[in-house]
Specification:
11 strands
């Protein structure tokens, strides 16, 4: 059972213990393929491997997790796990041009050989985390620059990139590319500050509606927002962009970005169900409920945004709501989706959620403690 948190230090202590005593040991053992050294796509809530095709985003995010754990002092064994996982990412997913394919089968055979910007963003983030934790690991800055340069043919005239798939003009892949650029910028590597500034500007000019302050998801080729079915509003992304823009705005002294972050945060709160203490998955453009289920990851983004913006009461509520997802038969696993009726959907714990969790926990326990948490001024 999760105890009630009365203060943020209480919550921080509980989460730090959960991370140190349960989550990291579980995912370092059951979450690693002992033969190939790569990461399992998911675990059951009982802590057993859940076989599934392995996405490159899951591999990159787990490299990031274990590099962050080592950097934050959670244990020396975690850096070798991150290193071996990164070598597996290079071996199984990287093309000669420096880009990473989307997924492979359990035996490492290529499965989805398409290349998404979303996947590249997390490969870049993993490299940045390793650069911080293990600066002697090789020319990671050069490798990251090569991956980024390989995306040049997807450049859009008005800024940003064209994603593959059904929604080529979207905010989401840029959000994670922005996160990766900020992480690389914090290492002191040259060239990344310009990308950070470009993506922040793209968000402020096009992704965020000037009238409502809401973050839109999908656009046409001129970065005009789509409406109707395309007019998706995700509370989790309101919070995630708020966290990013507040960090960038502080570092650059750009008050417009910090104002936008506050507006995004307030719009995200419109998707928080006070009864369940959770942020729902999606709203319509008029802020009515579009999907009342609540996945785990928006709860971590609510917590991060509340913390960075100094909203202590909201942060405490978000920490309490998030902790419910971590009450599982195997301590260290999690549940992914809470239904509107307050029950959880049966299913495995996605490895990809660990990235969201560790950044939120480090924001709670030691702000700026993750490689994603810093940005050069």
């Amino acid at each position: 059972m999760v105890p009630p948190f009365t203060t943020l230090p209480d919550a921080a202590a509980w989460y730090a213990a959960w991370l140190r005593e349960a989550a990291l040991p579980l995912w370092a053992e059951a979450g690693v393929d002992p033969l190939r050294g790569v990461f399992q796509e998911a675990l059951s809530v009982a802590g057993r491997a859940h076989p599934a095709p392995r996405r490159s985003r899951a591999q990159a995010r787990q490299v990031f997790v274990f590099a962050c754990a080592a950097s934050a002092g959670y244990g020396d064994p975690y850096l070798p796990i991150a290193r071996r996982g990164f070598q597996g990412l290079l071996r199984d997913y990287r093309r000669p041009d420096g880009l990473f394919i989307n997924s492979v089968a359990i035996d490492g055979a290529p499965l989805d050989t398409r290349v998404d910007i979303y996947e590249q963003a997390f490969a870049l983030l993993a490299m940045a985390a390793l650069q911080v934790t293990d600066p002697m690991a090789g020319d990671l800055a050069g490798e990251a620059a090569r991956t980024l340069a390989a995306l040049d043919d997807r450049r859009v005239a008005r800024g940003g990139y064209r994603e593959s798939g059904a929604h080529p003009y979207q905010a989401n892949c840029h959000m994670h590319l922005f996160e990766s650029a900020l992480a690389w910028e914090a290492t002191g590597a040259p060239g990344w500050a310009g990308l950070s500034d470009e993506l922040a500007g793209l968000a402020l000019r096009h992704f965020i509606d000037a009238e409502t302050g809401v973050l839109r998801e999908f656009f046409d080729a001129d970065w005009r927002p789509l409406s109707g079915e395309g007019g998706l509003v995700e509370p989790g992304h309101q919070f995630e962009w708020a966290w990013l823009l507040e960090r960038w705005g502080r570092a650059r002294g750009v008050e417009a970005a910090r104002t936008a972050a506050r507006r995004l945060y307030r719009n995200g709160l419109k998707g928080v169900d006070a009864a369940r203490q959770v942020a729902v998955n999606a709203l319509w453009e008029d802020f009515t409920i579009r999907d009342g289920d609540a996945r785990l990851w928006p709860q971590t983004e609510h917590l991060k945004a509340a913390l960075i913006l100094g909203e202590a009461a909201d942060a405490l509520s978000a920490a309490q709501g998030l902790a419910r997802y971590l009450d599982t038969p195997a301590r260290g696993a999690w549940r992914d989706r809470l239904k509107a009726d307050g029950t959880f959907v049966a299913g495995p714990a996605p490895a990809t959620s660990f990235y969201h969790l560790i950044v939120a926990i480090l924001e709670l326990t030691e702000p700026g403690g993750a490689p994603a948490g810093g940005v050069a001024a």
